[in-house]
Each structure stands twice: as structure tokens, then as C-alpha cells.
Write a structure and sequence with these properties.
Length: 422
């Protein structure tokens, strides 16, 4: 009896803006390997990375898989991967020209890369040269295009461990003959899916009456269904596929993912320093003081209730937020916003006998015109009312269509504060 070994496979940067999807490419690779070698897929991982990465693809996702195989088949696996990868390179060389042509990388490793590699790549810019140095000492095989960019994402996908903060996404792919045509997925059926399987999330945006399971790009993905339970996903996919008004998929797979984890952001709090300003581009901004630094918080018009809350802020309010520090101008692009301690908004005099007391003049006391009682001058502050803004535990977020894949919806939990310098 021979020994089984665990192998980690990471793949990234295989798609063109109009062609392909790395999820589908990983599926191809695993199907190809299955035909030629005996092995077991332990898990597939869909790992979203820093949304501001300059070379990102649409959702900036990288893929990985963990497989078990016979130790004697190790070299056979490398040979098959090499063959498959060369075929992928020749396919990609036929892609139409674009600004960032695909720069694929496939990494096969016998150990999981350290967690820091994931955290660096989900939270900020990574230099290719430093990543190459970092992974040099691991016992891994790297297949890549000459430009090697894909190594950054592929290595991060290998370094993510799902124990931390994960959920699942079932991805189904379209039949080849359907790619480029309009996807057939009835909104009524998506609403039914939402009601029938309440453990699935983000199937639709109720504020826009729009389904969220299908991408709006020409990629080969038919739809993705999200849940914290893989069993529910399998059932809901089968149910969708049984419907007349839903396109039939060619294949599907369940991925463990860091989506909805908020791993890309750290919550902060600070004091508002300025009144909000609104620019022509319809985004609003305020200045905040946080840990001895002044930062600009930006809310975009599509951020809806985040933008609305920001426009109601006053200097002195203590707010907390999550957002991404823009590498171009160091402003913070808000994702979630909360008002921790508002300052009073409207100031009034104390009341007596049903109306407010009035001062007879400078250096005069306040006096009630009803009973004649007087007192020293003071103002009463009225706290603001934010009841017209959608909030959960004082936090607000954009509607589901405008959230990033990585953003954790407030109904799954509000951010926990600490205060490092953003
Ligand atoms: Zn009175």
C-alpha cells in the first residue's frame, strides 16, 4: 500500500477582460488531472484579493485546490500540469489585445504557504520581486508566463486557510454554445430561491429588484450561489437546474471562499473635523482626525446610505468606519460607516410653561414669560435623528449590488473596533 500526499495547487491571472474565468480554468485543470491520474479533491478555494491591486481582474479572485494523491504519482502530476499549462499559454496568446493581458501562474506546493502571504495580498500592494523572494524557499513548482504577475495571486490563494472566516460559493459554468448569449435566469425564480433556501445569501438586491447570482460580464460563469453551508448549495443548485426558466449549466463546483469576510479592511474610529463637501462626481467627503493624523473619508454616490449618513455628519462627531486606503491620494474609500457619538445638532433654550425661556438682553438672565421664573443662560443641545437611514447596530452599508465581494454584510455581524493608523 503506498502513501498519499497532500498537494496545494494555486492558479491565477488566466482571464482576459472578455474571455474566460479562472474558476473555470481551475475546473478544467482538475478534470484533466482526473482523467489521467488517481486523486481526490479535498477542497477548492476562491480567494478574493486587494480590490485596488493595479493588475486585478474583474473581481480580483485567485483559485486554489487541495488534493490527495499517491506519492508515486507526484512526478506524473507535475508533467500533466506542465502540459496543461503550456496549452493554456497558447490559448492565451490568441486573446485579443488589452491593457493587462493575462499573465497566468500555476503553483504546485507540498506545503501550505504561510498566512502572512495571504494577509499582505488581501490588504495591500505586493511587489512581484519581494513575493518571488518570499516563496523561493518553499518546496514548490511554479509554471508561469514570462511576466510572472499571476504568481502574486496564486501564492496568496495557496496561503489562505479557510478556518478563519469563510463561507461557500457554488459556481456553475455555461455550456460553450451559450457563452456570449444572454443568460437565462428568471428573476422570479431567484426570488423563489431566496425564500426556499434562506440559508443562502446575496441572491438578489431587494432595493433594486435585481438578481445578484449571475455576473453581468461575458465570462463563462452561469451563476454563483453563496451560503455558509455547502449542502444547502448543492440542493439549491439542483433545484435551480430543475426549473424551466433557468439555463442548464455544463458543470459546477463548490468553493470555500474568503468572500464576505472583511479581511481586506480594518475598522477605525476618529473625530470629524470638517463639514461634508460634495463634489461634481456626486461623491461626498469629510476630514477626520484619527490617531494623530488627518484623513479624508470618501463616500461615492453608489454608496447610497453611507453617502447619506456622511452628508449628515458634523464636526465633533465621533465616527467609525471600514474602507480602503487609496494608493493614489491616501483618501479612504468608505465601505461601512457608523456614528459612535454624535455632537448635538440644534441648540434651544430650556422650556418653561410650555414655551422656551427667553433672554431679555446681554448679561440678562433667561426668563419665562408665563410664570416669570428666571435662571442663568444656557443652551440645550438636541441629538440628531438618523432614523431615515438604514442601520444595523448604528452601522450602515451600501445596498447589496454596490458591495465588494470581500465586504461582510452587516447582518452577518458589525465591525469590531481597534485603532491602528490607517
Ligand atoms: Zn414658567
Amino acid at each position: 500500500m503506498s502513501e498519499n500526499i497532500k498537494i496545494y495547487i494555486g492558479l491565477d491571472d488566466t482571464d482576459h477582460v472578455d474571455i474566460g474565468c479562472t474558476t473555470e480554468k481551475l475546473n478544467h485543470l482538475l478534470l484533466y488531472l482526473e482523467l489521467n491520474i488517481n486523486f481526490e479533491i479535498v477542497s477548492r478555494r476562491l480567494v478574493r484579493l486587494w480590490p485596488f491591486a493595479s493588475r486585478r481582474t474583474r473581481g480580483n479572485a485567485a483559485l486554489s485546490a487541495v488534493v490527495l494523491l499517491d506519492k508515486n504519482d507526484e512526478n506524473k502530476l507535475y508533467n500533466l500540469c506542465n502540459k496543461w499549462f503550456n496549452k493554456l499559454l497558447s490559448e492565451i496568446s490568441n486573446h485579443p489585445l488589452c491593457i493587462h493581458p493575462a499573465s497566468p501562474a500555476l503553483i504546485i506546493s507540498k506545503t501550505q504557504f504561510p498566512n502572512e502571504i495571504y494577509w499582505e495580498t488581501v490588504r495591500g500592494h505586493v511587489k512581484l520581486s519581494s513575493r518571488l523572494l518570499q516563496i523561493k524557499n518553499y518546496n514548490c513548482k511554479i509554471f508561469s508566463s514570462n511576466s510572472q504577475w499571476g504568481i502574486i495571486g496564486a501564492s496568496a490563494a495557496l496561503a489562505w486557510s479557510p478556518e478563519q472566516n469563510s463561507s461557500y460559493e457554488l459556481i456553475s459554468w455555461r455550456k460553450k454554445s451559450m457563452i456570449g448569449k444572454k443568460r437565462l435566469i428568471n428573476l422570479e425564480t431567484v426570488i423563489e430561491l431566496d425564500n426556499k433556501y434562506p440559508q443562502t445569501f446575496l441572491n438578489r438586491d431587494p432595493t433594486k429588484n435585481r438578481g445578484l447570482i449571475a455576473p453581468r460580464t461575458p465570462c463563462p460563469v452561469l451563476y454563483g450561489i453563496r451560503s455558509s453551508s455547502p449542502e444547502i448549495l448543492e440542493d439549491s443548485h439542483k433545484w435551480l437546474q430543475s426549473k424551466q426558466d433557468v439555463e442548464k449549466s455544463s458543470d459546477y463546483a463548490i468553493h470555500c471562499t474568503n468572500q464576505l469576510s472583511d479581511d481586506h479592511v480594518t475598522p477605525y474610529y476618529g473625530t470629524v473635523l470638517s463639514k461634508p463637501t460634495t463634489s461634481k462626481g456626486a461623491h461626498s467627503s469629510i476630514k477626520v482626525f484619527v490617531n494623530g493624523k488627518i484623513r479624508t473619508l470618501l463616500a461615492f454616490s453608489q454608496g447610497d446610505s453611507v453617502n447619506r449618513l456622511l452628508r449628515l455628519l458634523e464636526p465633533g462627531d465621533i465616527v467609525s468606519w471600514t474602507g480602503l486606503l487609496s494608493p493614489s491620494d491616501s483618501s479612504i474609500h468608505l465601505e461601512k460607516l457608523s456614528i459612535l457619538e454624535p455632537v448635538p445638532r440644534i441648540y434651544t433654550r430650556p422650556t418653561c410653561c410650555g414655551s422656551s425661556m427667553k433672554s431679555a438682553g446681554i448679561s440678562q438672565k433667561l426668563r419665562c414669560s408665563g410664570c416669570g421664573k428666571n435662571c442663568e443662560k444656557y443652551w440645550l443641545g438636541k441629538m440628531p435623528n438618523f432614523s431615515e437611514i438604514y442601520m444595523i447596530n448604528n452601522w450602515t452599508e451600501p445596498n447589496p449590488s454596490n458591495r465588494r465581494h470581500l465586504s461582510k454584510p452587516l447582518d452577518l455581524g458589525v465591525p469590531i473596533l481597534n485603532n491602528l493608523i490607517p
